[in-house]
Design brief:
The protein has 239 residues and is α/β, with parallel strands linked by helices. The protein is built from nine helices and five strands. It has a single domain, classed as 3-Layer(aba) Sandwich (Rossmann fold). Helix 1 packs antiparallel against helix 3.
Length: 239
C-alpha cells in the first residue's frame, strides 16, 4: 500500500507546484477575512486543498472520503459501509431512478448506490482530478454505464434542468458552501417535486461556546484541516 501511495503521489504532484499551493492555502486561511462574506469564491481554495490532499485521504479512507458514526468495536471502513447502506435505505433508492451526488469525491458512495440499488447516478464535482479518478474507478468496477459526470460548482448548476433527479445526496460537500440557503435552493431546484434528499453536513453543536478559547482552537483546527471558511451551526443549516 505504501508503494502504491508513493507512486500515486509522484504521478499526481509532479510539476504541480506543491510548495506554492501549500503557501497559497496557508495565506488564504490566515487572511480569509469575514466568514460571512457570501461573495467570496471558495472554488480555487477547495481545489487546492483536494488536489493536495486527495491521495492522502484515500490512503486513510480508501474510496469514500467521509466520516460515519462509529459503533463500539466497529472499524471506520465498516461504519462507512453501514452508513451508506442506511442512506440507500432512507432514500428508498431502486433501479430506474436517477440520482445526483453533489460533490462526489472519487466516487465511493456513488459506486455503492449504483451497485446495490441499480439507480443511475450523476457525479457532480468541481475538482477535475477527483472527477477523473471517479470515472476511472467506475470503469474498473464495471459501473461506468450507470454513471454520468459533470464538472460543476454546486452553487450554480444552471447547466442542469430543473426537476431532473428522483433523488439526491450531498455527503460533507455543502460544508464548503459560502451561502447555505443558496446551495440548498440550487440542489432542490434540480430535484423533482417530492424527491428525497440526504444531506450530511459538518456543524458545530449546541455545546460550542464561542467565548471558550479551547473550543475556538478546536474549531480553527477543523477549518484548517478541511479548507472551511467557517463551520455552521445546526440552526444555520436547518434554516
Amino acid at each position: 500500500m505504501l508503494t502504491s501511495l508513493s507512486r500515486n503521489l509522484w504521478r499526481v504532484y509532479r510539476g504541480s507546484n506543491v510548495k506554492g499551493r501549500v503557501a497559497r492555502y496557508g495565506t488564504w486561511f490566515d487572511e480569509r477575512g469575514d466568514a460571512n462574506d457570501r461573495d467570496y469564491d471558495h472554488t480555487e481554495t477547495v481545489n487546492d486543498y483536494y488536489d493536495l490532499c486527495s491521495e492522502f485521504m484515500q490512503f486513510g479512507w480508501n474510496e469514500s472520503l467521509h466520516f460515519a458514526p462509529l459503533q463500539p468495536g466497529e472499524t471506520l471502513e465498516h461504519s462507512i459501509v453501514r452508513h451508506q447502506r442506511l442512506m440507500i435505505d432512507r432514500l428508498q433508492l431502486r433501479e430506474g431512478m436517477t440520482v445526483i451526488d453533489v460533490g462526489c469525491g472519487v466516487g465511493g458512495p456513488m459506486r455503492r448506490v449504483m451497485r446495490e440499488s441499480g439507480a443511475k447516478v450523476l457525479g457532480l464535482n468541481n475538482n477535475a482530478q477527483q472527477l477523473e479518478k471517479a470515472r476511472r474507478k467506475n470503469v474498473e468496477a464495471g459501473l461506468d454505464q450507470m454513471a454520468e459526470y459533470m464538472k460543476c460548482n454546486f452553487m450554480d448548476m444552471s447547466a442542469i434542468d430543473a426537476s431532473s433527479f428522483d433523488r439526491g445526496y450531498a455527503i460533507e460537500s455543502t460544508c464548503h458552501a459560502p451561502d447555505k440557503q443558496k446551495a440548498f435552493a440550487e440542489i432542490y431546484r434540480v430535484l423533482k417535486p417530492g424527491a428525497l434528499f440526504w444531506g450530511q453536513e459538518m456543524c458545530m453543536t449546541d455545546n460550542f461556546d464561542p467565548d471558550d478559547g479551547r473550543h475556538q482552537a478546536i474549531k480553527r483546527d477543523l477549518m484548517l484541516g478541511i479548507a472551511l471558511r467557517d463551520i455552521a451551526t445546526f440552526s444555520e443549516v436547518d434554516r
